[in-house]
Records
---
Amino acid sequence: MAKTKAVKRKTRQYNRKAETGLPEGQTLTGMVTSLFLCYMFVVYPLYMHNKYFDITITKYRLFMFGVLCFACLMVPAVCFQLSDVGYKKKKTGRSEKKFCLGKENLRKWLMPADVFMCLFLAAGFFAWLMADHKREAFTGEMGRRCGLQFILLVFLLYLCLSYGCRLHSYLFPVFSAVSVLTYILGILQHMKLDVFRLLEDVAVRQKNSFISTFGNINTFASFICITLALFCGCYLLEQVLWKKILYGCSIFLGFAAVIAANSDIAYAGCGAAVLGLLFIALYQDRLTAFFQIAVLGSAGYTAMACLNRYSHIETRKLTGFNRLALHTEILLPLVGVFLICFVAWNLISKKEKQKKTDVRKKIVFTACAVFVVMLTVFVYGVRNHWDIFTFNDQWGTYRGYIWKRLGELYMNFPLAKKIFGNGNESVRALMYAGYYDEMLQITGTVYDNAHNEYLQYLVTMGLFGLFSYLGLMASVLAACVRYSRKKPELSALGLALCSYLIQAFFNLNQSITTPYVFLLAALIIGMCRYEKRQEMQS
């Protein structure tokens, strides 16, 4: 009887370890991590204080509160585990406390991304030293609250979340349900149905610039890029029916919300996600699921386009790439094409079920086909002088103007500022001092951000800051690729990260959706670190 109870106890311990992904005795820290992720996946996206009037500072304080509470609970546990505290019995039979942080322990824990995250923190500190306005550089109040204080917060987030935890199976479905609510709210506002009266006090000329629970349309588009890519990856890998249905609803409504966001940023990020998803589907032999995603996404987009065009409900004016939604005569056949491809692939796969195909050949062929299509579009667009291929001050809603001027300013920096930057969130001060009158005359506004994250880091944090950020993201993606065979869910997280990094070429870093990129990076490294420890222990 005693033996049976011991076996049952060990079985429960094993199941608890398998569920949390944490070593025995670390279930409490696993619960704290899950609680923080629920906070970021449920409370953070939905909470608003004074509608859109203080959306940036509200989300920033919400993020700060969550990270600081998380750190207060997790840092002691992380330090305990990193220090390898244990008990060693001596010959006398007495116990002695042993403190060790040697090469072997570092090999178990250290990842390349950890080094780059520390370098990114150092770059933020040096940029703060270079700043003319120290207080503003620390708080980031001259820009979008991404000052040194924000960098300290994301460093704490990374430290606590990446130390080796794994995900509970319910977290992504919960995040999917919350994201659906934000999509629906955005769609209703696009159709001029402001059910929560979030826009009633906003100036008429600015009403089209705010949407959902994220404020600016570009910020909402950034959230769509992250979440749609994540849920597409989850749908591709998921086997449980109810979760697959939930992710399918997210994909359908998410692509419909792309029209509501009315931002070209969404097309850049989601396009990259779909392309990445195709290669993952080829690599993992899941083309059937990929075609299902293509049908769901195109159906959601087309349904929203038809509602936008043929219903009597007043909607917002469509601009940029969103004008594609006006051409339903193209979109409706597109859904049919995806359906035909889906049926055809099912028939072919049944006939060739026993045949083994070379995955690498499929990937190479697809990559060549994509390259040819993109090159053809580029050459045709340049020859026909499409606006997107004509770079001038007006390009990308005056992104051409701000990029050119910040490039000129950076080239005139002294060597120290070229390396360490002009100071955190200092773009507004630079543009105000150098181009104030011209900026108002040409663009009609005062810019406080480069609208390109990489250029923003280069100007404000220098080559050191840009190098550390790119190194961090590259090392995270490299770890994701390495361990994705053992942990397929890493593919979904990596896809969401890639989607954000592509849209970041045209978008601005801010304290609303930018925290998610560091959260994704920390989750990926945490899961990879756990797998690395398992490899070294086996």
---
Amino acid sequence: MPLREERLRDLEQRDPDVLVVGGGITGVGIALDLALRGVRTLVVEKEDWASATSSASSRLIHGGLRYLEQYEFGLVRDSCLERGLLLRNAAGYVWPERFTFPVHRGDGVGLAKLAAGLALYTLVSVPRVLGVPHLNSKDTVRARIPGIRDDGLRGAGDYLDGATDDARLTLAIVASAIEAGALALSRTEALRIEKNAEGARTTLVDRLTEREFSVSSRAVVLAAGPQVDLLRERANLGGQYVAPTRGSHLVLPRKRLPTDGAVIFPSAVDGRIMFLIPWPHYTIVGTTDLDAVPGEPARATWDEVDYLLRSANGLVPAAQLTSDDVVSTWAGLRPLLAADESDPSSRSREERIEREGPLYTIAGGKLTGYRSMAEKLCDQLTSDLAIGARGSSSPTREHRLRGALHQALARPRWSDFGNTSGNFEAIEPAWSKRYAAWSSHVQEFCSRAPEGRRPLDEETLLGEVDWSVRFEDCLTAEDFFFRRTDLGFGPRSRAEDSAQVVLERLSRALGWDEATREREGARLSSALDRTHRWRTESPRNP
């Protein structure tokens, strides 16, 4: 993508028709939709792309099997449709994943109920790009989930859904929006939004230089996820739109909790549905669903870590997992619509779109449905303002994301992920999901870069620092460790061992002075602290 300085100069030439505030997947999805319709669009994000909710999900692209119990058939149907579109249009960034749903005697879901639920799930899954589900024997379940609780095991159901690297998917949408003609600026915060006769005037601040400037636009879209109510205050609007909940995840070594594919299961602690999700070298356990504490950054607490470990041990007691097995954690806020329900898990995953003069607010929704949400808002906006190409369907339905493969990846064999030592053949399975069609280009780039093939962990090379700065809008060490790669979610000692060489590389690429380099090192250390702070709350650390 063009360098940030080039995009800033482009913005100085002419104001946009529409300003989108919020650089999560919803905001950048709207920017892509508008740009493809020929609307001059600017999207801004105060931090990094996908720096909050859109890099802290469970990394699933799914219809939502569990929502059938809440009779949200429309939500499930729409999510299944979007899943099919993403498997085609974002192939590589999104891939099929097999889910196994084990059933034990006494579970709230028996085999007959599960079979009926999977049949209904298949019925509403249009197009049926992932085949049909199956019921499995106890022996098959034991093979797929080694060490599973054998007492009362009845069997399992399995079905195919989708998985993704949420931050990388969001970044691919940003690149696609820029390619379609949108302007996109991260580290750019909206301070004030004021309506006027022509639309609105927004005061922005470049957080890299602290320079303030203003842009005029015919409309402003407020797409700030969990922060949308705060953004509405800056636009002199009222009302509570969202009641965010926090979802936390554990990262465990794959050898401690190996599975063949993903697992969906009811927690032995309280019956909540949760997941074991395979990832290169790791298994992810999630998620919790608790009311967010206003003003506090999202992070996992000791109580959540303990709850997730007890839930995993309840399913696989042979693993005997303890807090010592936890490599790292992440947590994010779900931008759920404010409602009367006291149980966070029962709040709707639907979205809400409101227009107030030239200001449009979009709130709620889920990762899988970002494109559909954008389509609904853009249909309304382009009709209201009589701008852009207006038709019966959004161009994003057929638009392949920049870097997407021309055919979907096969379901991954997670046992294939080994140590790289700079070996591109070994690193390819991980990179195919990080870079999709760009993987071979990154390999060539790293081969030419000085020390470019130096490993930072099992799936990350030093040359990727240069690539992420030049082509992926990477502006800080935290961007690289947590959103361009997963280096920050591995063992902390490894991240700290890599920190200085990455900071040195970023300093050269971005022209940092020594003070900036020290400040970025401190920020990276703070981000790593956040993923491990639960350890200080352990009863073993009074």
---
Amino acid sequence: MIKIIKLTALLLLAALSSVYGQEGWFVITTRGDRLAWVEADELSPSGDLIKIKKGNRYGLMDQNGNIVLKAKYEAIKGYSNGLAAVRHKGNYGFVSEKGYMVIDAIYDDATGFTEDGVAAVQKLGRWGFIDRYGKLFIDYIYAEASPFKGGYSVVRKRFDKTVGMINKDNKFVIRSDTYMNLAFPQEGMVAARIRGTGKWGFVDTRGTTIVSHKYKTAYSYSEGLAFVAEEYKFGAIDKTGNMVIDATYSDVKREGFNSGLAAVRSGGKWGFINKSGEVVIPFEYDDCSSFSQGSAAVLQDGYWGYIDTNGEMMIPFEFELATGFFRVKDQLVAIAKESPIPPPMDDIDDEESLIEDEEAMVVDEVIEEEEEEEMLLDEGEEEGEMVEETYEDEEEMYEEEPEEIKEDGELQVTKPGKDKTKGKGKGKGKKPKPSTKPQNDTTVEIDENAPAGIRFIEQMHGVEQAISDSRMAYNASLMYLNAGHADIDAFEQNARVARSKMNTALLKIRKATQQMNKAKTTSASMDCASANQLFREANSDLLDASELLETSSDLLNDTVSKSGLKAYSKSIEKVTDRLHDVEHNLRQATKALANCN
């Protein structure tokens, strides 16, 4: 029996190690709605679909997480016009959305089909082009070739070091003996790096020089302007080559302007400028994407979120990675990686790390059970009696029915099946008690003699941090669930609704705080009634979240094994503690607004 327990412990530790390696990814809308949650090593845009990587294999899915092609291919290069270029058994071919190999896998390499309906393919070291039926469109004569875009392809002849640009008739529109690099035409202009000096300039689609080749770096035109750098600082020129935005930026995003804004870097931080060179969104981000469809992904304090063109938060900062928005089947979506955040550790009693200690707890539990077993055997107890006792405890665990959440947000009762968990049940644990005082240092001392608006703003300094801590602790508990410690549908539903309520509350709090900050720095009068209403609504959402998470804690006590229980319940307790701190701060904040007119 002891050997069996030891073996079980080793298998459990191996399983825990395996599941912790899995990654969680979201497909989200511009409103922050989650269309899908996917376990994968990587998700990325791929033409009209989303590429999914699991291990060393690739597949395709739609925006709702529905698998279109199973992750069984060695590589995938885009999906367009109903076909995807895939590598299977070492060679490239093209498969349909149904998974049929429409064009045989006979190519050494290939690109995906583009809107032009042409793909570049390689055989025996030479590149040519085929149409959607696999018919050879342009013979295998090039050493390198890009897919066609807008009717043009950049190619390199055999034995040449320079490149040229051809049209669909295989005619050179830009000669092949002049340029080291060519970009695709944007707004009728082609960024070109000339042979000899290695400098960049711009030519038209006939190869005529429009902007002289004098730049160390040059990116394509967008909305009438192009970013260039003569040395190590970037500025922007118009189509005549005039510098309209001074070269003062250490870096820029090569996509340039979109929605009238461009991402530029200054002082080690990223922000956004308009086409007049005015700073519209301050330099406060560690990284960002260019704007796409009116939104941009931005990185702040280690987490990605999304802002609109006014710099206001659209989706909270809670992701490890994030892409800009793109279209999948006419729906605007983005891909974001779930943040594996550990629980806040600032005031946990004697436990140094829940995640680090979890495997140790499993081992300790096994050792304790072994010692208990040996004592019973020494006293003459039979192993059969121990097994019966285990089953009796397990049955007692299901005598009370835990609660879960309905879609409308009301609590309901459900009884999990016995196959949901294994091991001894310990009955209901203690529900986290609401705090009457803040339990951390997020409470702000207010100068009662200061104006009401200033007192209110000072109070907000602690509120957002407490909200952030709450969401971080929740993410930790969700990480435990995703890692496979237990299959608890009720907990998952309660916790996800609680997360949504916390996110909603945070958006309301930040919106109200922005109103107050604008009033503090401008002559505008403060809309106290509006801000107060936002905070009252936020407080209601947080109270609901607190109740839901307390219910989740009870569910965990009912359904999780002893080893997982400590980590789960501690994480949930941290969430509810943080929420009680927030409630206290919000009450103080609304008091500060009471006399605001």
---
Amino acid sequence: MSAPITAPAPPTTSTSPFTPLKIPFFRMLWIASFVSNIGTWMQNVGAVGLMTELTASPVLVALLQTASALPVFLLSLPAGALADLVDRRRMLLATQTWMAAVALLLAAVTLLGLNNPWLLLTLTFLLGLGGALNNPVWQTVTPELVPRQELPQAIALNSVSFNLARAFGPALGGLVIGYFSAGAAFLLNGLSFLATIYMVYSWKREPQATSTLATERVIAAIRGGVRYARFAPAVQHILVRGVSFTFGASALFALMPAVVARRLQLPTSFYSMLLSCMGLGAVIAAVTLPRLNRRLSIDWRVTLATAAFAGGLLGLGYADNRWLLYGLLTLVGMAWMLVLNSFSVGVQTVVPRWVQARTISLYLLTIQGGMALGSVVWGTVAERLGVTVALSGAAGWLGLTTLLVLKFSLRTSPETLDHTPARPRLEPVLAEAPTPTEGPVIITTTYRIEPRNRPPFTYLMEQLGRIRRREGAIGWGLYADLADPVRMVEYFMVESWEEHAQQHERGVSRDEADLKNQIRQLHEGPEPPHVTHLLAQHYRPIPDSLPMVPGSTRLVAGTAGEAT
């Protein structure tokens, strides 16, 4: 076995769209991912073909898509939480191995003639479970492998891998099925995972900071990720823009087969050509991406690409010329890649690493939700009013979404944000240390603020309160002492002492440090603001057999942390 490959490589200032491929590990992982994507598309073609052979029920055929998509809705949030809590390399190995094993099992039962519709649906669902667990952690790998300034190109190259596989995978799957069988396609898909497994196994990941605390519970981690997104405007803007775009764009994927078969009355091969044109457009967009990034802001890129996608929908609804449709679908492929690349880069760079996978899982869930809901809505409109009306409605919707830039601008999410902590937090002075599970904990900070400085102080404190909630506070408030006009007390509450200790380990973010510097300039007096830590107390009867230590609320023996 070859020696493990170290990543990432030293930063580079090149703006070539292919610069990330100069990093050996990223290049080989990209190739392995492309092979795996080819296998996935072969799997999809084989599953549909096999199901139509096993049953004539259109419901069971449609359930294949449900079996693939349902795991995303069930596991996106837990998968994001796990990816933030466990070692990402080990999680990738586990998910890739799971998918390889399921694909090979599906190949075996098919080649042996033991498959049936419900077994095919079950194994497709199990394969989808692996994909749902894999997706959030897979998207967090790229920022670890390439320098931050090359992240847009790297994500674009990943999109190229997917689109090239979409262009060639179905055709290769059709050839394999035609010459051999669906079982052979499933076998090749299972084997395609082996290259990715080897590459992840060879990844000599840089040592990560380890916590001395117990690992967060998954449910608490999910709540923390949702809470972070709720109080992070930059994340909210991406999620709103993402779901609004995919809701309209879903009409293309939902209605394009009907356009080809019913309106144009052309063979399925024309549909495949349109998909290939979209893949070509994505490749063109990836090549031109660095130049576009230099000339256009993220808001302009998304706005123009959304308008171009809307134009493609109108063309699909009204145009009859084949070559015009080829050109329009190439433009649509470019627009699709540019918009999703902008969202993907944004969602991976506006948050610190400790919550990155959870934020990505929220983004993926939002995108999938927009696609699923849009497909139902535009499909219903097409059934009642026709595909042309549905495509026109979707184009109009996308046109309206360009106005979202006025309220949900993406310029607050630059691609060069630095989430390195500005400084560590000062350790609290404690008479006795609580156990990690004790809580809730209330932290108070007392300031001395002159009445004339109260308006700017309260404004800054409200910004700090948003950061407190984003970082894990379940409650926050600012109060004035009615007996002392200059005494102001801020409090925030966290669920447990462990949660507060994790906040200390993460350090003080740069925006929090900047706010605190401004706030402390308004503080009066020679002493710094006074901080206290208050731990919730609960009454518990004291057993008669256990004497008390004089002057203490602690027991001589018994469970640590119990108090009267």
